Amino acid sequence: MSNLTSPYDELADAYHATIDPDGAGLIDPTFDALAGEVRGQRVAAVACGQGRDARRLADLGAEVVGIDASESLLAHARELERQSPRGIEYVHGDAQDLRPLADASFDGVVCYMALMDIPELEPTLRSVARILKPDGWFVAVITHPCYKSPAHGELVDHVEGTYRRIAGRYFEEGPHNSATRWEILPRVAYHRMLSTYVNTLVGAGLSIEQMAEPIGDRPVWKEAAGLLYFKCRAAR
Hints:
By secondary structure, the protein is an alpha/beta fold. The chain has six helices and eleven strands.
């Protein structure tokens, strides 16, 4: 029995009730576009939670292995798999070492909205590179580090009547308590500068091919990007 635990263990039921409780899978056109044609590929969903990204990849035709540190979230993922089988395998493991997953065993890896919740970025990305086949791809989605820094808020410009995003303490990397995070998420997140993400990806052998900053639904996210997407490629 593994001693690995996660801050999400205590939040798993509330998280599941809010995030894809019927198991339909992730709906994100930008993610789909970056992942591309995955049919017939073996793909790892790292920090998969209760599996919404894994279900989306399986629906697109991939052979999927989901891995997460929270057994409580994985229990929900496995129950959804039992109810509607897609052939997804779920594994209990730490994203920071991906120890249960073999070297060079995946065509692609995704990490959807999780890197900012993982304490150590460098070993996580090196582990991603380790499990990728030569020329394999990696897609990651994070809260935008430039606009979701440790001190941030919204402001209405009363002259124009438009929204602005205020961001501060950008250079203070590390854990911080985020007052604006949903209650279904752990209070502590890990802020990193954009340059830290880019340099750590490149240092792990993951060359950036594309980045995306889609417009969000809320008024403030029509003025500043809320999410940042990367698509990377492992060395041949």
